[in-house]
Write a structure and sequence with these properties.
Strand content: 15-25%
CATH topology of the largest domain: Gyrase A, domain 2
Largest sheet: 4 strands, antiparallel
Low-confidence stretches: none
Shape: elongated
Order of helices and strands: HHHEEHEEHEEH
Structural class: alpha+beta
Number of strands: 6
Helix content: 40-55%
Distance between the termini: 44 Å
Number of helices: 6
CATH class of the largest domain: Alpha Beta
């Protein structure tokens, strides 16, 4: 990474920690005000590099960094709460569990699972609104999907 990119990423991290920014055009403007000439495409790549995602907190959806996610569960009850709010479906598919979320939410759920994975989970892959959870076996996947279906807020 170049020094100018490192400075821009540091500035973006600082902005995300201090300000409630909800749209990429706001981030572009804030970075330009801080002396960084950027485009929306650059901001989008930088947000992904930092692992920043939009989360809802206090009725507001805003960009946050992974270390700011107070919704990352420390125990099962917090994970259940996260599922009830953000996960729309949980389906087994061979040795996988496929979770569907609202757009932009799969990464947040994946990080929460990775923070305290059930014993059956080997790893996760997150897209925008879909999350694949690799399990140790198809039996584990089916049991986990069934358990998680009971946690959904639908």
């Amino acid at each position: 990474m170049t020094d100018s990119r490192n400075r821009r990423l540091a500035t973006l991290s600082d902005l995300l920690r201090r300000l409630s920014l909800t749209r990429q055009d706001e981030l572009v403007a804030a970075l330009r005000d801080a002396g960084h000439e950027v485009t929306q495409a650059t901001v989008s790549r930088d947000l992904e590099q930092l692992g920043a995602v939009k989360i809802r907190r206090g009725g507001e959806t805003r960009y946050t960094l992974p270390d700011q996610w107070s919704v990352v569960p420390a125990n099962e009850m917090r994970l259940r709460s996260l599922f009830a709010e953000w996960v729309r479906s949980a389906e087994p598919a061979g040795g996988l569990v496929v979770l569907k979320t609202p757009p932009g939410s799969a990464h947040m759920v994946g990080v929460a699972i990775d923070a305290s994975p059930p014993a059956a989970v080997v790893g996760t892959i997150s897209g925008d609104d879909t999350l694949f959870i690799a399990c140790r076996s198809a039996t584990d996947a089916a049991a986990l999907a069934q358990e998680w279906q009971g946690w959904l807020g639908t």
